[in-house]
Design a protein that fits this description.
The structure holds two protein chains of two kinds. By secondary structure, chain A is an all-alpha fold. Chain A is built from twelve helices and no strands. Chain A has one domain: MetI-like fold (Orthogonal Bundle). The two termini of chain A are 24 Å apart. Classes of the chains: A mainly alpha, B mainly alpha.
């Protein structure tokens, strides 16, 4: 075993790089049942479903003006007309939360997908080729990992005016290294496993092995990582928007709402601070809960 | 532990640091209009821009510039801050100990709280309290730091006046030591996100070791439950934690940067943030380099420590 493999064993808290039986069809139902047994995972799934409905269907039901400012309506406490009050320039907070949810979910899911696609390819190629290709690719991944993602995004944010699409690309392009490491580790350990050897011995083509044996065995790790990556991306997006480097108004997001509301912390305008903060926590926690639940379901050894 | 491994691991670390320098260099040099525009501002005349470019060697080929930069780095020269009018090294020299203190305290507290908690959970696995604690831990490390910090400021500083709402001020590290009360909120904020990872990790490590044969043997030969837990489970669960310390270092450093911004604590994070806003790129590059080197060194140390702590790991 070379030093890389050991690093990877340590990468994963469950340390389950040992034998993992390939999943069968009946395993799906068993997995679902296992997932459902974890209350936090189910709670996470319900919250995500709620957030999706809230952000994308909500605005169709609860129609608000999120484009033009109405200063006459500024800083109103919650009322029948504005269920969660209004902001300092008269935006309806509840409607704004929905709009913010859209951008949070778009950036979170989009960036995670970008990161996972890059990471899976990177890791699979490195693991598949091995040797100096692997060493080079992994040192590049290590270099990206060594610089805190927040620094990179902040630096980019000062250079280019961000938009949702740009942030998806930026955050995705920065957070691929962790999934790359994990997928590479899986590929390395799969390459020498008996069932792969057996398939080779039976005359299977490289393509057959990759599609029938490698991918089904890596997919668990990839799905778990996607979920966790969504949580990270949403958090990162919130931080950079909170720091003022998110997409400019009238586009909005929870981080920007929060930092804006903080100007009124001494005025007691709680509705401009707490809903946005709670929304961020809910979204990040929910995706982390799902990720942890999936990890138990897809990566456990029994 | 073989010397060959040490050398190889050290070489890897050096290559990673070089990789980081390339990434940082390329990012700063891909600025629209180049660094000259960024530093001189949109009002500068084309002649001023041209003079600046020539004076700072920005007209040379990129590869030559990179090697100049690398040469300067190797001499410990991180450049000169345009806005602070001071060498970057001086600025970082003042800020680094403060961030190090913050990270160190948060790590220490996180370990002290997280590890016993995780092991307790493993022993009482799947109990109601285990599930509840898991949720608390997950929530802890899912909490955006700026939000957590703000909640603590709102509740404990503004509401109850227990702690000052900002971290210790003053340019030197001694200021931090002379005002420990002001350090409480920043450290606790950072700690809350760290202890969750430690507890989760310790729990799964303890679960792994609890399932081992040597635990059954230890019980069978008549050791008490407590003896088994302290002598066998705790020691074996601490091993993987060493590597976790290295692994989550980038996260904790990034966290420290946010915490510093929230509590206005003048460490590396605040320095980076202020410089990024002011487009003071020599400082930005310097901070990024130093943070990355610290991360690489951290994981290198963790790897080597792991080898010492667990002689079974061989390559």
């Amino acid at each position: 075993m070379d030093s890389e493999d050991v690093t990877l064993l340590k990468d994963r808290p469950s340390a389950s790089a040992e034998v993992r039986a390939p999943k069968e069809i009946s395993g799906i139902r068993r997995g679902l049942r296992k997932f459902a047994r974890r209350r936090s995972a189910v709670v996470g799934a319900i919250i995500v479903l709620f957030l999706l409905l809230f952000s994308f269907v909500g605005p169709l039901v609860y129609r608000t003006n999120q484009v033009t400012t109405v200063l006459a309506n500024a800083n109103q406490p919650p009322s029948a007309a504005h269920l969660l009050g209004t902001s300092d320039v008269g935006y309806d907070i509840l409607g704004r939360l929905m709009a913010g949810g859209q951008s949070a979910l778009e950036v979170g899911i989009g960036a995670a997908v970008v990161a996972i696609i890059i990471g899976t390819w990177w890791g699979a190629l490195a693991g598949y080729f091995g040797g100096w290709v692997d060493a080079t690719m992994m040192r590049i991944a290590d270099s990206v990992l060594a610089i805190p993602a927040l620094l990179l995004v902040l630096l980019l944010g000062t250079i280019i005016q961000p938009s949702v699409v740009l942030l998806v690309i930026e955050i995705g392009a920065i957070s691929w290294a962790v999934p790359a490491r994990l997928v590479r580790g899986e590929t390395l350990s799969l390459r020498v496993r008996e069932f792969v050897e057996a398939a080779k011995g039976a005359g299977a083509s490289g393509r057959w092995i990759v599609f029938r044996h490698m991918i089904p065995n890596v997919i668990g790790v990839v799905i778990v990582q996607t979920t966790l990556s969504i949580a990270n991306s949403i958090a990162l997006f919130a931080v950079i928007s909170y720091l003022g480097l998110g997409p400019p108004a009238p586009a909005t997001n929870w981080g920007a709402m929060l930092s804006n509301g903080l100007n009124y912390v001494y005025d007691g305008y709680w509705w401009e601070i707490y809903p946005a903060g709670i929304a961020i926590v809910l979204a990040v926690v929910a995706f982390n809960f799902i990720g942890e639940g999936l990890r138990d379901t897809l990566e456990s050894r029994d | 532990m073989s010397v060959a491994y040490l050398i190889r691991r050290l070489l890897q670390a050096i290559i990673v640091v070089i990789g980081v320098s390339i990434i940082v260099f390329v990012m700063v040099h891909s600025l629209p209009g180049g660094p000259a525009r960024a530093i001189l501002g949109p009002q500068a005349t084309p002649i001023q821009v041209k003079d600046f470019i020539v004076a700072n060697g920005y007209n040379k080929p990129l590869i030559v510039q990179y090697f100049n930069y690398l040469g300067q780095l190797l001499h410990g020269n991180l450049g000169y801050s345009y806005t602070e009018n001071a060498p970057v090294r001086t600025l970082i020299g003042q800020a680094l100990p403060k961030t190090a203190l913050l990270v160190f305290l948060a790590y220490g507290l996180g370990l002290i709280v997280g590890v016993p908690l995780g092991i307790w959970q493993a022993v009482h696995r799947d109990g109601a309290l285990d599930h509840a604690l898991t949720s608390v831990e997950l929530t802890g490390y899912s909490m955006p730091l700026f939000w957590l910090g703000l909640l603590l400021i709102d509740g404990l500083a503004i509401g109850l006046h227990l702690f000052p709402p900002q971290g210790p001020q003053g340019p030197t590290i001694s200021a931090s030591f002379s005002d420990p009360v002001a350090l409480v909120l920043p450290v606790v904020t950072l700690m809350i996100t760290v202890f969750g990872s430690f507890a989760r990790f310790a729990r799964s490590a303890a679960l792994d070791s609890l399932a081992q044969d040597y635990i059954r043997t230890a019980r069978a030969k008549g050791l008490t439950r407590r003896q088994v837990l302290t002598r066998h489970v705790l020691r074996n669960s601490l091993l993987p934690l060493i590597s976790l310390i290295g692994l989550i270092l980038p996260l904790v450093i990034a966290g420290a940067l946010v915490v510093e911004q929230v509590f206005n604590y003048p460490g590396m994070g605040l320095l980076f943030w202020n410089s990024a806003i002011a487009r003071d790129y020599p400082v930005v590059m310097g901070v990024a380099m130093v943070v990355a080197v610290a991360t690489v060194l951290g994981s290198l140390l963790a790897d080597i420590l792991y080898r010492f702590a667990d002689p079974r790991v061989s390559y």
